[in-house]
Specification:
Elements: E1 11-16, H1 21-36, E2 45-50, H2 56-70, H3 78-85, E3 88-92, H4 101-107, E4 113-118, H5 125-134, E5 143-146, H6 154-165, E6 173-175, H7 183-193, E7 207-215, H8 224-228, H9 231-249, H10 258-271, E8 280-285, E9 288-289, E10 295-296, H11 299-303, E11 313-318, E12 330-335, E13 342-349, E14 367-373, E15 377-385, E16 394-400, H12 404-407, H13 417-427, H14 436-456, E17 461-463, H15 471-478
Parallel strand pairs: 1-2, 1-4, 2-3, 4-5, 5-6, 7-12, 8-17
Antiparallel strand pairs: 7-13, 8-11, 9-10, 11-12, 13-14, 14-15, 15-16
Helix pairs in contact: 1-2, 1-13, 6-14, 9-10, 9-14, 10-14
């Protein structure tokens, strides 16, 4: 099956921070891919805006280098790249000053979709929003895209939302979480709500527990200063893992509509129970050796703070206080320098009430595994008879639901999450973007957890690079008679 490409309307997209790392790695290559696919019209324009001393030719050269570095070779077409670059422009702009704003006002067209991507530090969001209005650049139909972090706690999130709301309506604000743009995440909603098969089983009567894992093999790298002020809880759990939890646990919306979907996600966040201290395990990676035997620094070395109590790993047991999920635990886990790079949601169903085959036949629970990276797709483990004579021997096999043929061989034709989300911004579709009250509700649940371990003076448990995290994290499930799924690519 070949995916359909539906072109979007002509647009002007201004990328504030247009020379930054995110623009180079994700935004600009993603826009090129959409142009290559025929989704971006010839009338579209991309305007990089930054403080760098570049002219238009210099910026186009930077964009070309970005495509060369981050777009697969089989997708790089010299003629298409040249045509794409003709739609790329550059303005030198001072976010907190006056330079460049009048030039931008003259450049922006009023008869096309206007979108402004804030790929900058959150401290600049207010300045950008204020100047877009003060210079008459944005209008009631304009859209702004806001990158995380959406605040550092509830107080700062509320202040950030108030700053944006002073200049833009909520319907104009697109808070982007790239996890929601992944093809498999959206297929999760399709599998749940477009088929009768799973929804009758999607509750505490039939689901034993749910595991959500986002594991990385890299350390904090060059983000040490930022990360040491955030940690895994603020950097990953409060946003990425929370959104995945909501999509798994939410009730069916009355239709696939932005506010209908986000209303149901908000109900999940508000139903989260407070987390007890013994239901949380925090960790920091030690110094160790890489796969090639070279010495690797510890977390404390990476952040340059020998007294840091910030976690690079967190595992927690979460419960949802509603009729659908009462008594079903959700186990969340994320960390740096773990065994493999993998993101997975595993819905573990209960065992059959009575096995007619006896207790020694290698029985396993049915597990629906949703893999977000790498190798996006879904599998459902089921029990079948092992082929051959000699009695009824059971074995576990995966029922493949990766849709590989439909989505493109080896995932080469699957759009990157940023590609989909940016096109949704141009369409005006907010379904896969967070609403302001969602962000605040997530912080309202997260803040007391962080305040608790800070008040107790808890120190993260050390763990070895290349492991599955601290030993205490294994006990989090063992005491419930369960075990973590193996972290593997």
């Amino acid at each position: 099956m070949v995916s359909r490409v539906i072109p979007v309307d002509p647009f002007d997209l201004v990328i504030f921070g247009g020379t930054g790392d995110l623009a180079r790695r994700k935004i600009l290559p993603g826009l090129y891919n959409r142009y290559l696919a025929g989704q971006m019209p010839d009338e579209a324009r991309i305007i990089g805006a930054a403080r760098a001393e570049l002219d238009e030719d210099g910026y186009r050269q930077m964009v070309a280098q970005s495509i060369e570095e981050f777009v697969p070779a089989q997708k790089r077409d010299a003629a298409v790249i040249d045509s794409f670059l003709q739609r790329v422009h550059y303005l030198r702009i001072d976010a907190r000053g006056t330079d460049g704003w009048e030039d931008l006002a003259r450049m922006i067209r009023k008869d096309v979709v206007q979108a402004f991507y804030f790929s900058v530090a959150p401290s600049l969001f207010g300045d950008l929003a204020e100047r877009l209005h003060a210079h008459g650049i944005s209008g009631p139909e304009s859209r702004i895209v806001v990158e995380k972090p959406f605040g550092h706690d509830l107080k700062s999130a509320r202040a950030l939302n108030a700053t944006l709301a002073a200049h833009f309506d909520e319907s104009q604000i697109y808070r982007i979480d790239h996890y929601l743009g992944k093809e498999t995440v959206q297929n999760l909603m399709a599998v749940r709500f477009a088929n009768i098969l799973f929804e009758p089983l999607w509750n505490a009567r039939h689901v034993d527990h749910v595991q959500i894992t986002v594991a990385e093999t890299v350390g904090v790298g060059g983000r040490g200063q930022y990360y040491d002020q955030s940690g895994a809880m603020r950097d990953m759990v409060q946003n990425h893992l929370m959104q995945l939890l909501c999509l798994i646990a939410m009730e069916p919306p009355y239709r696939f509509d932005p506010d209908a979907v986000r209303d149901e996600k908000l109900k999940v966040i508000r139903a989260l129970q407070p987390v007890r201290p013994d239901d949380i395990v925090r960790g920091q990676y030690r110094a160790g050796k890489g796969p090639d035997g070279t010495p690797q620094p510890s977390y404390l070395d990476d952040v340059g703070n020998p007294d840091s109590r910030t976690e690079s790993f967190i595992a927690m047991r979460v419960e949802i206080a509603n009729w659908r999920w009462k008594g079903t635990p959700f186990y969340l886990r994320t960390g740096k320098k773990l065994r493999a790079r993998a993101s997975e949601i595993a819905v573990v169903f209960k065992e059959v009430p009575h096995s007619i085959f006896g207790d020694d036949e290698g029985w396993r629970e049915n597990v629906l595994s949703i893999r977000l990276q790498p190798n996006e797709g879904m599998t459902l483990s089921v029990m079948i008879k092992e082929p051959g004579p000699g009695g009824m021997r059971l074995t576990e096999v995966p029922l493949d639901m990766t849709f590989a043929e439909a989505l493109g061989a080896d995932g080469q034709d699957i759009p990157d999450a940023y590609e989909r989300l940016i096109m949704d911004v141009i369409r005006g579709n907010q379904t896969l973007f967070m609403r302001g009250d969602e962000v605040e509700a997530a912080w309202a649940w997260t803040d007391p957890i962080i305040a608790g371990w800070e008040a107790r003076g808890d120190r993260p448990r050390p763990y070895d690079p290349g492991s599955s995290g601290p030993e205490d994290a294994l006990m989090l499930l063992h005491r419930d008679g369960r075990r973590w799924r193996e972290i593997r690519e």
